[in-house]
What does this fold into?
Amino acid sequence: MSSLLFNVSGLLKEEVGAKREYDINDDVPVDGGSRRMTGHVTMLRTQPGVLVTAGLRGVEQDQCSRCLRDTEVPLELDFEEEFFASADPRTGAALPPPEDVEAFRIDGEQMLSLDEAVRQYWSATVPLQSLCRPDCLGLCPRCGKDLNDGLCGCEPEADERWAALGELSSELKGT
It folds into this structure.
């Protein structure tokens, strides 16, 4: 069972402006696995449902896009989303869906799950190209040696497009 599943039946029966706060420190399902997340969630009663403000922190295990070493990428998920009630909290009668078909919903049993919101924000926060460190030198394109461990024995390639500039530089140094 997800640690991001909340029974909000009591909150939905309170007046607009009522608030609940929760600390998170648990493994949370994300993209077929689980990630340790810590942080804080505030839920505020609104007319149509609950406004959730979350500040969560976690770590994504990835590979550096330059040197291919395993690396940990710290992620910060800060979001605010409104969840709409599916049923009247007092009568249980179904409520009309929100205009936005992709809006987050509170199920008919008054359970609010943050799983999908966290999954979406996590996926959007993971960098397209992770780096083990900002100044990673990567791999030699010829021999594959990790240049963070030192230079390889490969000779630098001469780019023929720059040959004329190299000759001009040599002439200028000779004068």
